[in-house]
Queue: 2 jobs
Job 1
Amino acid sequence: MNWSDAALLGLRSLGRRGARSVLAGLGVALGTTLLVALVSIAGGADTRIVSQLSHGGPAAAIHVDDALPDPAGYDSDNLQTGAHRDLDAAALAAIRRSPHVASVVPVLAVSALVVPCPGIQPGTPSAPPACRQRADEYFGTVVGADLSHAPDLPITLLAGRLPEASSMTEVAVTQSYVERVHLNVAHPAAVLGSAIEFAAPQLLPGTGPARFRGRWTQAQVVGVVAQTVDSGDFLAPIQQTQLAREWTLAGVDSRNFRRPTSPYSGAVVVADTLSDVHAVRQEIFAIGYANSAPEHLVASVQKYLHIVDIVLGGIGSVALAIAVLGVSNTLLAAVRERWREIGVLKALGAADGDVARWFLVEAGLLGIVGGLVGTAAGTAVTATVAIVVDRYLRDQGLQGIDLGGLPLQIVIGAPIATTLLAVVAGLAPALRAARLPVREALGG
Amino acid sequence: MVRVRGLTHRYGEGATALTVLCDVDMEIPAGGYAAVTGVSGAGKSTLLSILGGLERAQAGSVCVGEVDLTALRGAELARFRRERVGFVFQDFGLLTMLTARENVELALTLAGVGRRERRAQAEQLLSEVGLAARASHRPTRLSGGELQRVAIARALANRPAVLLADEPTGNLDESSAGRVMEMLEQLRAERGCTLVVVTHNPELAARAEQRLRLSRSQLVRL
């Protein structure tokens, strides 16, 4: 009897004891559901928590500053800088060439006079004068970054979207700006669509009191972020801040106003993996730049998360083990019920292997059906939990969370593992049936 | 040909041992027809089990054709049953989750016959026992006589050299019993296989060419 014949016989046997087969399959499905849901939720939560520790960016992100390193900061998560040191394209190229560096995203922060225009839509002819008549302008910092590499940047989007990577008219603001313009921080979306005017300073030559000339630009707020790319209230494409820097460089220095010398104020370097972060940091120190990364914090949190994963995975595994034992119990009962049938099969010439195959196929069928149903149900549970958690967080005025889709290895692996477990559980009943003396089975 | 020499078989050990067959000799020519009678517990079914390779002889020799059953073990005995023997049981021994045709096919499935071929053979066999119209019926929808005819069709599926029937009419009424026995005898004659029937019924036993009686563990020719 080959496997397909055994499958046909197994299907008929399962069908004859429909209710019991359904219950055994449901047990496997429930166990699989629990395991898949727990592992998926735990995995998704781990990723998000570690990501949050890195302020929304990749956990393997390293901040590089345009300063010499302070030796005391070599083993610290915090940025400790020495004297200023220009960070230019050559330095970035040197960092990029270092082993285990996945990407290098340059950052340029510039100072500017900021004129908020809440409630005024950009592009209207009267907007600039209306803004400039306001009295709440202030000096702020616009952080420019290569936003085509946004996923590599430690940015958490709270509302709206990030500016287009090459846009000269879009910016994102931080929560501190939302507070400054007296809007509710819990509902940051209110600031979206409003206009802001920036004036990059240029010190004019001459004696007497310092005279500045501004390069006025207007931008629309398209997003609200919690960013730590650099300190500043605004996040913009780096092209905007590069033009502002060039404007400032076209002026002169004074005792109280120094033009920036460094082409970049910093960079975000992403290591290949979390375990490479320390080595990459040492490389950057060796090149001569101060840098920081929450490597110790992430490592500690990961250890705790790993324990949580083990506990949740353990709970799911116990549930699955109980379900699989149910398969074993069902089949043992089937062996007792089919005593006579086993005898008839053997009398017809079935070898021990044929009889074992019959029961193993039944176990496998229960496992694969239970596994597939359980994986589908686990996916649904994970999606539901993700929606509920996300809604709760948003209701609390917090950033939402996306637990993400089910990892492919779980979708494929769970039914396979469940089937294998069920087959293993079916081994004892199958061997018992196979070894049954034929005369005894026939009731002699 | 079935040849038994000095066959001894007992159940249990020591003081509680029960000898059911003691130094039994027997010979049935190829294509012969023998009936074995005896009271309950006389060892009729044990003898049939040993002849059919369901049980190994403890002492003596048992040959079916050229095959010495005492030399066979596990898988070899299974192969012997698959290729050389057909069983007909008192309670029919049909699998209730399969249709009549699938029950007949089962013997061919175990013999490794392809799906299409075994289906055709099963339908032919059911036709021979007059059940072509009931091929797709499950055993629960068949009468006792029909069930036994399905069992006979299944027993003949592998073209056995020996057909062993253990009380084949025990669960049938008189009329069905007569038809089943006629069928068995007719098929034996057509196919040339050796038929050994175990029965309590002296009338059925009288139809055989060779009548044997098991009494006090001994086989007596009548």
Job 2
Amino acid sequence: MTELRLVTDDFAAEGPFSEGSPLPRRLPPGRHQIPANVVREHQRQRLLAAMAETIAQQGYASVTTTTVSELAGVSTSTFYKHFGNLWDCVLAAYVATSDRLCATIEEACAECDPREDPLDVGIEAALSFCVEAPACAQLLCAQAPLEASAVAAARRILISRLAAMLRRGSGATAGAAQPPGLDERMIDATLVFVGSRIATMGPAQLQELAPELVAILSRPRQAA
Amino acid sequence: MRSEARAAAREALPVETTAPTPDATVREGEMEGVLHVVGELGFRNASVRAVLEYSGGHRRQFYDHFESLEDCFGQAYRTWIDRLGVQLLEAAIAANGWQESVRAALVKLFQFIGERPTIARSLFVEVHVAGGEAMVEHDAAIERLTLALDSVRVELGPDDAPPESTGLFVIGGIEACVCDVLAAGETRRIWDTLPELMHLAAGSYLGPEAADVAHEEAQALLERERTELEGGGR
């Protein structure tokens, strides 16, 4: 199953998952010394990871609380202890994955050599994220159903965050004023583009898109 | 030349022109019904019963025409996306110049969305949920529109050529914008995006100067003719 890595490293190091076992994996059944809050958090992470995996494999058409619960290794009654309904779980998975993508890009840009183009670094980091966690990437790129309006709103928030990063990244190389909303359109287009590429070429080759994507995103700003 | 190109577009995307039989009319109604129901309720909540409540007719008749709800949606999707594709290409061909063609096609698309928002939600949003045959048709339509956008490459020198995937990127951006507006149920807001989308298309292919011009021209067009354009195809 895809690792969402939604449990922080500190949490993992202090908890019962520090013996090298990948997260999220089902906890040992029966009596154990694991605190109830840790079990609960672990179940939640498994459900979020299972949601991303199910949507990546089956699409939105056939995802149900039952299929997600089965993949996560919990009962449906446990599912409903964590989430009010299917869409609450999708939303939680979307928000957590968005946060992780943004943190990955920000971290890469903060650590990069000042001589490097931040747009290059940001795109490379985002595509690496997609390669490592293709189900999460598909969750972020996929068009949500009409009934999942909160997920659509979360997508708009992600687009705004990434557009702000794009503005910062491209500002270092250009500086020309852009019409309001253009960066959001570029990011929206990028999500659709990457989503279609995952479907057609598979996640492994995504990194090859980096130079072309940088060229596409730079072109409206390049001096003639 | 334009009429030849229009004829070629019609050839590529055939539309029924013969008088429909009563059975074909019922089938057509069922196809419109499935798109309406999916656009209204979402693909996950659609049912044959809901389609028949919209279109009339009997369940048995429905299953004479289609194997399943999914089959009906797939066939309806192909028919409607082909028709819309012809309309967009005709609008593009009737305009002079690449930028004007792109703008004319966007205006036609926005008029369709304004007139048939529920059908548009099926065609652009819920198709991603449905997947299957409809998604294959969706991808084919995207490819045709990408080829049409790419026609500007013949006017550009090798040094000015945009990246290979530019067309797919621009069409993806337009579709994402349409989906956003449709999902929010704010179809009139789609007109506000015309300058941004023209900037995206022209900038991605031709660079920033052309993008600024395309943006300004689209804004000027909206200031002059927005009310007429919104009422366009009615």
